[in-house]
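Ticket #4471: structure output looks truncated?

Reporter: J.K.
Steps to reproduce: submitted the chain below (159 residues) through the standard prediction queue, then opened the result file.
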Amino acid sequence: MRRPSLRLFFTVSLVLLDLGSLALAFPLAYWTRFVWPAFLNVFPATKGIPDITLYHQALVALLPICGLVFYYAGFYKEAVLSAYDEFVLVLRGMVMCLLLAMAMTFAYRGAEYSRLTIGLWSMYSLVFVYVMRELDKIFFRRLLFSVSGPTRVFVIGKG
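Returned output as attached by the reporter:
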């Protein structure tokens, strides 16, 4: 593989991992909110436990919205960011997704969604997206090194 095709493959893998992380965080947030006994002892489900298909429908609507938010937030412009810059970028993107998800669930009057579940989803998503992006960067650095070998650099100057 040449470097340009690796770059495209890296970007596609980031998009798929981001959307997969968002999708994985949703059932975990639902389980934490409505099934985990320790969490239910602190935050009881006073209005009952809703059907998970209601939340799957919300996820189907949220995934493309979050994908667009990530794209316009610059998630796929820079190939390699520092871990801190990556975390700040993911945090900003997830805050925007959280605000849009809250607005969407508030505006939709067909069903009631647990705001706590949406908040848990955003926290889990923040962790999953960030960790998956960091692991993807490690994988592609090793792949790039194995494909093209070390890059020779001649440095002139001080420091």
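Triage note (M.O.): checked the attachment and the full token line is present. The chain is about 75% helix and 0% strand.
Status: closed, working as intended.
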